[in-house]
């Protein structure tokens, strides 16, 4: 589950899930929900792309993961709609994502995300054993 929250001139994403890997999957969906107005219905899982991202904390891994997805969107016009994330050695993310290239005739671009920030980043286990993350997007 994810939701947006306002943050000055930026946009915050709050993600809650049962496992850290699920947080990364939900965060990816939340990012593409911001980038594409008609997410997820207009995006077809036609192509698979593999990812490997490593960091020294869940917070840094979240920023790097979303940054990599944003980079693929900006440079290759890739849209992703489905994610399968595994965590190895705690802070190494291995993922497959399915989607397609941005089609200007079918897809409507959403907000222009400039960067994924470290400002007020959170990634922590809750008392009920679920996981909560918050990340701010620079619009």
Q: In a few lines, what is going on in this structure?
A:
By secondary structure, the protein is an alpha+beta fold.
Characterise the protein shown here.
Helices cover 25% and strands 41% of the residues. The radius of gyration is 14 Å and the shape is globular. The mean pLDDT is 95. By secondary structure, the protein is an alpha+beta fold. It has helices at residues 20-35, 58-76; strands at 2-7, 10-17, 47-54, 78-88, 92-101, 115-116, 122-125, 131-138.
Number of strands: 8
State the helix count: 2
Helix content: 25-40%
Radius of gyration: 14 Å
Topology:
Elements: E1 2-7, E2 10-17, H1 20-35, E3 47-54, H2 58-76, E4 78-88, E5 92-101, E6 115-116, E7 122-125, E8 131-138
Antiparallel strand pairs: 1-2, 2-8, 3-5, 4-5, 6-8, 7-8
Question: Which descriptors would you attach to this protein?
Answer:
about 140 residues; alpha+beta; 8 strands; globular
């Amino acid at each position: 589950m994810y939701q947006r929250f306002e943050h000055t001139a930026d946009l915050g994403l709050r993600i809650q899930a049962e496992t850290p890997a699920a947080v990364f999957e939900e965060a990816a969906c939340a990012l593409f929900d911001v980038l594409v107005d008609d997410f997820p219905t207009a995006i077809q899982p036609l192509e698979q792309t593999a990812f490997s991202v490593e960091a020294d904390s869940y917070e840094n891994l979240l920023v790097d993961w979303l940054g990599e997805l944003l980079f693929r969107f900006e440079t290759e016009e890739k849209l992703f709609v489905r994610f399968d994330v595994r965590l190895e050695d705690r802070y190494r993310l291995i993922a497959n994502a399915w989607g397609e290239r941005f089609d200007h005739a079918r897809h409507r671009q959403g907000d222009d995300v400039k960067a994924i920030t470290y400002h007020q980043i959170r990634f922590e286990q809750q008392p009920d054993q679920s996981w909560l993350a918050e990340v701010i997007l620079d619009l």
